[in-house]
Amino acid sequence: MSETGASKPVITTDTLTANIENKLKDCGKWEQFTANLGACQTDYDRITLLTSTPEVNDMIIPQFFRQEKSIEEAEKLRTAGNQHFKSAHYDKALGCYSQAIQYAPPASAENDNSSVLALCFGNRSAAFFYLKQFHLCLIDIENALEAGFPVSLMHKLLDRKGKCCLFMKRKHEAIAAFEQAKETLQNAAGVQDKGKQDMAFLMDQFIKKCRSLPEEKSEDEAVEFVHTPLPTLTASSHQIPCAADFLTLQNHETRGRGLYAKRDIKVGEVLIIEKPYASVVLSDRTLTHCHHCCVRCFVPLPCEKCVDVVFCSRQCRQAAVESYHSTECQLMSCFHGGDVRLGHLAYKMVAKAGYDYLMSQRDALEYPPQKDPGQFGLDEKGVYDSENYATMYHLVGHSDKHTVKCIFSRAVKAIFLLRCLEQTSFFPALDDRPDSAEKRRVDACYIGSHILRHLQMLPCNAHEVSELGINWEEPSASPTLEIGSAIYPVLSLINHSCDPSVVRHSYADVCVVRAIRSIPAGEEIYDNYGALHPVMDYAARQKHLKKQYFFDCACEACVKNWPLYIDIPRDSVNFYCENCRGRVPVPAIANANSLDTMACLDCGKKQNIRGHILKVGSLERSFQEALHKVIFSLDVEGDALQHLVHFLRVVDKYVHRPFSSHNDCQEAIKLCYAYKGNAYPRTKRSGNRLP
Ligand SMILES: C[S@@+](CC[C@H](N)C(=O)[O-])C[C@H]1O[C@@H](n2cnc3c(N)ncnc32)[C@H](O)[C@@H]1O
After folding, report:
1. What angle do the packed helices 610-618 and 640-654 form, to 10 degrees?
2. I need a labelling partner for 217 at 20 to 30 A (CA). Which of 8, 500, 577, 678 fits?
3. Is the CB of 396 under 6 A from ligand 1?
């Protein structure tokens, strides 16, 4: 790795693959090489072939370009921030201070300019204060104190803390901060005695004001900045701990493993709350979203060593460093320059599992004790646990269906990532034993085979981590933004339908799965793989699913060729036949009283379903009102969501899909749930400004 940090041109792994292909063609070895690659049976054989072919191996040298922490750069950015601050451009000042914080090295024994980081935090706290973001200001004051804020300026920081607490009506904290501020005045540099007296007088005035405040309980606003509190499962499954106890894992002849309902599941019930085994934020979000949990950072905290990632809290930073960040810190620009995309996730999965685990589990992973593929990933107690690496190892990869060229490009990427891993402390150091180098070569091929395996399975198993980009003017037009990618071993068990029964939402990087239509006992749970029947026609859906997921969809919407949303007939609704669950067409729900007996289109039986029609019709008004509240005002605090859920439960009982009101209701419910998860900005009035 370059120790100089000098800028070097960076080549993407796609270009690298093309260059290697050209080189092999130029020397007439391409045909034989691809034939050999096509004949390889395992990922280990594939990695071994590429690494033992000099024309390939010698070209896969990641270019390491890293930007170091720099006091000079930090000071430059802090000065720019101060200029914006003086002109009362607090938003711009905030941006500069956040960048300065990225570059400022933390305090250390060798680093006598240690207060730069603390000063940057202090400056940013001032910008938050003037933006009236008192909660965020307090966090940065704590950051400044932790980073060693200079004693000579401490009175200013504590005075700001007092004022923040006063604005937030935290009476006792405010008094304590002003008292402390007064005490530290004696150390204030460059302030005459008279100035100190004036300041102390003002602080006393504030203390008086605080004392006159009523006693109030302060509320923790922190969670509201990013998402509402996580829901809970009523009871969790013994077999799949992050899933509800009414789900079970089964194997289907053509669809493979899937999750099934053990009892009737109602619209709105929570089925799964899963933390990913690993997640990554997208490369354009690395300075706005937490590297560990993907949540939007309002007070970004830098990594202490690299300038490329931010964390939302000390806890996340510590968890990342202890688990995997030490094996990627300083390599982030290499991943971005190499444009490895999902490769970073594959890398992180292997880094998190660790060398010792992967070596010790080699036999168990390659030759699982279970004979039935439907049982793969279950541990010795029969538990399918998302924290168990074996669950991911056995996710469907379809490696037999990829073209040789595709395997080649993924294998190049895997070796690129392996070389990155080799730059870190992941592998044990070579020792003096004569076979040490050879053992390392074999180990490296084995670790590389895991990266390649994940690169093949991630395109059909990884999920996005999302955030609702709230458009307060037109809530129904709020886009769902992709902020990261993650691997959830349980979610990955859910098969696809173009008419899904569940919907997923992110709370930080935790995924919450809820029922979006009624699911009868025994039915399989269906997610959607980006091919929804109301908005994508049959041919486009089939093409997408075949290309990325290698199957022909035979869901009800596909088999019955349901129309697109805009083409769903509005002049007639099909109710369930009491005899055969077939279709009884009803021309106008509103005129149910005038309707007589009607015949089922499927079994021909005549019946009077006026009672059912009236039940649906009686909800029409509350449904429309709730829909209006959600779609036009994103009013999710009242009972709108409850009305929508009730409407859907009743409609599901009596009416066949497709039914346009069913779609409208589902979309409104999804918007409510999306708002409860990651959503930004969460308030209409001020928004939460992004540093
Ligand atoms: C994310 S995995 C789902 C879990 C998978 N069935 C398993 O056994 O691990 C996606 C893969 O499952 C299969 N699959 C998903 N939905 C399907 C469907 N509706 N029909 C047939 N196969 C399906 C396809 O092979 C697809 O690539």
Report:
1. 160
2. 678
3. yes
